[in-house]
């Protein structure tokens, strides 16, 4: 079993599905000969040819429209937006058509496409290359939103996304594309969508997060353990629909919750989780839910970037606030 990075896990999952399902095609700007801006599709064009790995014009609207049309005709397209900030011209086709087709046809036609995009900050890029727009897509019925946090979850969740009969937005946290490796079996085994992953058991506070900030939450949990605070860490993974039962079960045990995400605070996915906790878990909470998030400003340039992104110290401060709360 090879040790691979998250970006290599994406490539590996794409290769598996192309090999085993003739309906799968990959399309996007420079995904073919050049292997993509982050090399997520490196080697696939040479291996599978230009009929399966399609280089498109620099036109995100056309890429989305082509993917939707392919999916309507029974193919399984995997389209790439080079950066999450370039995804906005694709929204019309995704929301107006891909998400509506099952309902519009009363289930006769589905739209099994995946739209992949590098996601989030932390690589010293301009603001259009460092955004976290997951809440926009999570708001739309008929659309799944998935963000992996490790090589193994990137591999298994991408396989599941490609096999899903409905459209999936698959955001890949670029900050950890090559940050570390782990063993991943290239066996075609998908991980379940719509499921949270409990990465660390705890009894005092629940840390809820996704994407690159799983790493900071696990580091914070290690430091909190030295302060005799036991933190449970949950990777949401699928942000639409959210597996709230797993979160509620954890909060029933710990009584406290801190939600961590790098997207803007206002109307972020963390607000939805907090609202559901208020509706369904109010009597399990012994302290108000805390959110540690990005700020309601565009992602700043790199000198301030790490001040914008939630860090371990901010997470620990929020945990201390919940631990010291007195009703």
Summed up, what is this model?
With 327 residues, the chain is an alpha/beta fold. Helices cover 36% and strands 20% of the residues. Strands 3-2-4-5-7-6-12 form a seven-stranded mixed β-sheet, sandwiched between helices. Strands 9-11-10-13-14 form a five-stranded mixed β-sheet, sandwiched between helices. Strands 1-8 form a two-stranded antiparallel ribbon.
Q: What this model shows, in words?
A:
- 48% of the residues are buried.
- This protein folds into 2 domains: 2-184, Rossmann fold (3-Layer(aba) Sandwich), CATH 3.40.50; 197-323, Rossmann fold, CATH 3.40.50.
- β6, α7 and β7 form a beta-alpha-beta unit.
- The model has no long low-confidence stretch (mean pLDDT 96).
- α1 packs parallel to α7, α3 runs parallel beside α4 (91-98) and α8 (213-226) crosses α12.
- The chain has 12 helices and 14 strands.
- By secondary structure, it is of the alpha/beta class.
- The strands form 3 sheets. A 7-stranded mixed β-sheet has the order 3-2-4-5-7-6-12, sandwiched between helices. It has a 5-stranded mixed β-sheet with strand order 9-11-10-13-14, with helices on both faces.
- It has helices at residues 6-20, 44-48, 60-72, 91-98, 101-104, 134-138, 151-163, 213-226, 244-254, 269-280, 302-308, 312-323; strands spanning 2-4, 24-28, 53-55, 76-80, 114-119, 144-146, 168-173, 182-184, 197-200, 205-209, 231-235, 238-240, 257-264, 290-294.
């Amino acid at each position: 079993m090879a040790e691979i990075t998250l970006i290599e896990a994406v490539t590996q999952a794409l290769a598996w599905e192309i090999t085993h399902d003739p309906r799968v095609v990959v399309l996007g700007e420079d995904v073919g000969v050049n292997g993509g801006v982050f090399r997520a599709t490196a080697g696939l064009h040479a291996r599978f040819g230009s009929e399966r790995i399609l280089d498109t014009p620099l036109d995100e609207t056309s890429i989305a429209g082509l993917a939707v049309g392919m999916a309507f005709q029974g193919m399984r397209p995997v389209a790439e937006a080079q950066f999450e900030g370039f995804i906005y011209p694709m929204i019309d086709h995704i929301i107006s058509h891909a998400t509506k087709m099952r309902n519009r046809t009363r289930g006769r036609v589905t739209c099994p496409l995946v739209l992949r995009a590098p996601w989030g900050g932390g690589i010293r890029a301009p603001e259009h290359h460092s955004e976290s727009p997951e809440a926009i897509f999570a708001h739309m019925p008929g659309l799944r939103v998935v963000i992996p946090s490790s090589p193994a979850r990137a591999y298994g969740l991408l396989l599941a996304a490609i096999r899903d009969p409905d459209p999936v937005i698959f955001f890949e946290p670029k900050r950890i594309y090559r940050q570390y490796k782990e063993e991943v079996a290239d066996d075609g085994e998908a991980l379940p969508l719509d499921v949270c992953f409990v990465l660390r058991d705890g009894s005092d506070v629940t840390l809820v997060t996704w994407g690159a900030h799983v790493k900071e939450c696990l580091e914070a949990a290690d430091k909190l353990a030295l302060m005799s605070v036991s933190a449970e860490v949950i990777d949401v993974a699928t942000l639409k629909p959210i597996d709230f039962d797993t979160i509620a079960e954890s909060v029933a045990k710990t009584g406290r919750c801190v939600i961590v995400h790098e997207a803007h605070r206002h109307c972020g996915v963390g607000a939805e989780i907090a609202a559901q906790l208020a509706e369904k878990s109010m009597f399990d909470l012994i302290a108000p839910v805390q959110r540690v998030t990005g700020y309601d400003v565009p992602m700043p340039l790199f000198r301030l970037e790490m001040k914008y992104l939630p860090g371990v110290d901010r997470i620990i401060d929020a945990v201390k606030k919940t631990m010291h709360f007195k009703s």
